[in-house]
Amino acid sequence: LIIAATTLPIHLAALAPPAPGREALWVPWLFAASIGPVFLLVSAQAPLMQRWFSAHPAAGEPWALYAASNLGSFAGLIAYPLLAEPLLSVRAQTWAWSAGYALLIAWVAAAAWARWTAPAAPTRAEPAQAVGAKRVLAWLALAAVPSGLMLSTTTHLTTDIFAMPLLWVIPLGLYLLSFVPAFSDRRALANATQRAAAPIVLLAGGMAMGSRSSGSIALALASVVLLFVVAVTLHARLYALRPDPSRLTLFYLVMAAGGALGGAFTALVAPLAFDWVWEHPLLVVAAALLLPQTPLLGWTRLEGMSRAMVVATVLALVALAGFAAWIMLGLDPEDDRLLVLFLALAMAFSGVMVLGRRWAFVAVLALTMIGRGGFDTLETSLSGARSRSYFGIYTVRDYPESHQRMLSHGTTLHGMQYTDARSRRPTTYYGPNSGVGLALARAPALFGPNARIGVVGLGTGTLACWKQPGQRWTFFEIDRAVLALSRSRRFTYLDDCAPDATVRLGDARLELGKLPPASFDVLAIDAFSSDAIPLHLLTEEALRVYGRALAPDGLLMVHISNRYFELEPQLSASLARAGWAGRVLTDTAAHQQGLSASVWVAVARDEARLARLTRGEDKWKPLLNQPGTRPWSDDHASILAAVRWRNLIGKVF
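^ thats the sequence. predicted structure below, dont judge the formating
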């Protein structure tokens, strides 16, 4: 613990940025180099305390201490976004954590002294029973599946249901809480959860392959309930297979290895192996394989003809489940809710009836998954419409009746192109009445025929079709999968309108810093149309990077459209502190086919330069200024103040 303290205070290791496509390996290496030593030691002291506790002759079973440890982890998890992040800067957080680490060392030393001076435990009459390989593998599997399912649930929620602010806290919090009833001395909650696990896995897990959600809170709730029930059930099985306390450290070592294995599969292997969140239904099936299989009503104990009749009935119910799944392929969950619910309940009943026959239970679950959206998800993958990278899952869908091709990331539209003669027409957030459309249309008048244009965020490349002869364009894109969509002719904006444009792969802030000062006349920051906010592109330090990259009379355009975050006051506060002038234009795009509502902010070094753009246009309005709003910086940025709680609550209820 003391040696690891030499790496404090916590700071990011000075690693070179990753090569495009290597982010999945670079990020864990960054974490290991930055916080690896102290993280390892803090994690390791928890089982150590239990081992010392169990060595005291007056001690009882030590396992409840693990439940208390995870309850503390949950409290810390919730406290961070609600208290630590809003109230403390990053620098203050690192020093506060260092102080807490020093206090931990003192506590561990005190515990060591108490153990040193305590009487020795009595010698066992018989040696502890050896732990076999089969039991170790069971520990490994029972730890790996909930860990992987926690991460896959987070990805599934934010990709195919909706990206709610701080949504990642919920699956992780429930995962930590699952250890509390599972390792508690009081078994009532764990036992009740285990009894309810099978029907919940069939009902909620049956939706795990759906990929065309409309953002239903019911689906989100089902996903998190499924995670909690599975985690409690499998962790309770871990508790049931616990060894003698003398083997406690081996038990926790295997548990940790299982958790790391599940996390590595979901976070590192799956993005490379799958084009969708296929790890989620796979882990739900794995959970079904590990669930306790207690037969309903004890029918498997029947003999002779009675048992044969029961088996025949059960097989008929399984056949009914398969038929129902086939019928459900043609149903719309929104238009046929009652019928879908009835069939889902019938299939869940069939699955409960075959409890005790693991293969039959898993078969019913698989049929339910296929029937409830799985067939469509599988068909989309087989068609090649999806691509996946470390940064997200992208789906390209064609709509022949309207001659449209759309790119989406879960429930968020990222761009659209017409597939007919209108293929070069700017669409969605980039139409002629949008802020960026007006700015780029006036670029020749403002900066001459050889204007230099920079765009952060490629997307489908729609903005490329605002390029005019003589202009030099540069795009900044962090995800090479997005670039491939434009270069493979899935979307042709870039090739048709700006074939000579430069595309720089990598984090835009870092790439902009590599360029000479005053490289652009217009710089468009288009990284905020999704519900996820890359905060480091909106901080005061980021504005300084943009100011360096812009010519003295240059124009900065920032896209701040967002469903759940009000970014205008934060940006206004940052601009005021930097001494920049800004105007905002909200384009409702009402009743215009192919266009989407958007909010763009135009920024210049002073009002005179900004007036050159906004002159004659009454659509440009002063930025919303909320007194007391603190600008975001690299050292202090909290999203809580920017959450649109009315939109969020409306979405939930």
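The longest strand covers residues 550-559.
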